[in-house]
Amino acid sequence: MIPQSFISDLLNRVDIVDVVGRYVQLKKGGANYMGLCPFHSEKSPSFTVSPTKQFYHCFGCGAHGTSIGFLIEYSGMGFVDAVKDLAQGVGMVVPEQDDRIPPAQRAQMQAQSLALSDAMTQAAEYYKMQLRQAPAAIGYLKGRGLTGEIAARFSLGYAPDGWDNLRSVFRDYDAPVLAEAGLVIDKVDEEGRRLKRYDRFRERVMFPIRNTKGQVIAFGGRIMEQGEPKYLNSPETPLFSKGHELYGLFEARQAIRDAGYVLVTEGYMDVVALAQMGFPQAVATLGTACTTTHVQKLLRQTDNVIFSFDGDKAGRRAARRALEACLSHVSDNKTIKFLFLPAEHDPDSYIREFGAPAFEQQVAEAMPLSQFLLKEVAADFDLSEPEGRARVQFEAKPMLQAMAPSALRLQIVRGLATMTQSSPGEIEALCELSKPVAEVRRAPPRSARPEPMGLELQIVRHLVAHPALALEIDESGLAAFDSFGPEQSERLRQLVSAARALGPQGNFASLAMHLKEQGNEYDAIITEISSESAESDFEADRQYVASAIRQIKLDALKAELDQLFTSGKTAAEIGDRYREISAMQDQLRKEAEVGLPGR
């Protein structure tokens, strides 16, 4: 858990114009910067970046957020990775509550990571240069229909024949970092002593594997002639975990947004060949089954994922594993489909034989997850027999349990019920599903708080725009909020607490990010503030909030005074309280005259 105060400090140190400017061409336009939105297709710029608010906002699609949010949405990073990426750029070390690694050891780990990354970059440049002078490799790629332009886009390379070619690249060929990076292999005797060292990749076309920041973290090498293994991948290293990475994702990010979906294939050559043939939105798993982490990364890029598998038995097995990896991420606003090609084809061979339009038709006719799930669980059983129907329910149970309650799960339940001659309620009971919805006739009423209005709305708006104002509100100020009503008072108190947690350096960007994580209650206010051309004046907002709180207190005292005279109390009792109220009213009026904060 990264402390909120660190997030606030980080967002104060980074410049969102620099962060967004790495990926979007920005031009100065008044107080802000403008550019074409990277999250939807547009011809005239409606995407603004505010250096004063440290916030971006698109007037076209409504996308908005902080530097952290931009990296998450654009690069597909997780929250922690985005924070670490920004922190590294400004020389900050991310604190973690469960991080017990001593500072010296952490510094050593960071140095090792940098050394590994540098080694991979040097190796990638070497392989790329070797391809230029390797006629056989160039001929192989041309034979697969690839142009020099597409080879350059994916930084393809070539590892020549020979046992220690990397000796010419690295001054210290015996350095441990080369083995840690998976670039060389150490042959050792039974006692663990190294006998010799040699290059891992030899006589192979090289496919650099990049992370979401574009750094080379591993390689895939394909043999050009007959031989095994056809593909040789880098081993797991501190930089590379094949269950977490997707080949081509870095190169495909913008194409995925433009196309509105991502196409997941099984091999490097599928990705490169599809990009060559007009489908640059393709990525591939790295010689391993699709994992839940893969699915999570894909759904950060787009709401529509299409898995493309070979039509043979191996392709079906891979599709089943992908299906299982998807289940925990299934939701009503995401679409996941499965495309199966004829048994003798992969995407590369299919598109070359039948052309891009035919492949596009296959994509359009891909099988929805719900249909594939029901087809899979029923594939091996006879639905005309009670035993067969029971086995289908048994097979479906863990899959349904892996899914969160949703409308789509209900639709699958209904499909399974029809298939097995049951009712949806019986399926939910048999499968012991969490939060069953089949028998619910009407959704319970929502218990949302009423929208802020009038003076409350203005206080909320000013606090969101300038969180540091919350530090000037004391307990009597918080108590004044009770006059709005219990739900409104609770909202204001929670907002003040969240703003205070950011500390004196708290700003709109950091508070907006925190509020969005809690839900959508403040979305309209955040959108309104982020879309304004200039930041509101802090001192003017400070005076407004102070004045508003004083007015609330004065109104509450006046109401109490009115009730006092109709309370039936004795003249002495009324007199004592009347003098107290009058003194408080005088004090508040004096504060108003000199412009003191509302306390």
TrEMBL record:
Cofactor remark from the record: Binds 1 zinc ion per monomer.
Q: Catalytic activity, per the record?
A: ssDNA + n NTP = ssDNA/pppN(pN)n-1 hybrid + (n-1) diphosphate
| Residue spans, zinc finger CHC2-type | 37-61
Q: Name one GO cellular component term.
A: primosome complex
Q: Tell me, which GO biological process terms does this entry list? A: DNA replication, synthesis of primer
Q: Name one Pfam family in it.
A: DNAG_N
Its EC number is 2.7.7.101
Q: Which UniProt keywords apply?
A: DNA replication, DNA-binding, DNA-directed RNA polymerase, Magnesium, Metal-binding, Nucleotidyltransferase, Primosome, Transcription, Transferase, Zinc, Zinc-finger
Supply the enzyme class, top level: transferase
Domain free text: Contains an N-terminal zinc-binding domain, a central core domain that contains the primase activity, and a C-terminal DnaB-binding domain.
Summarizing the function annotation, the protein's role is: RNA polymerase that catalyzes the synthesis of short RNA molecules used as primers for DNA polymerase during DNA replication.
Subunit info here reads: Monomer. Interacts with DnaB.
Q: Which PANTHER family match?
A: DNA PRIMASE
Which protein, by its recorded name, is this?
DNA primase
- The record lists the organism as Pseudoduganella ginsengisoli
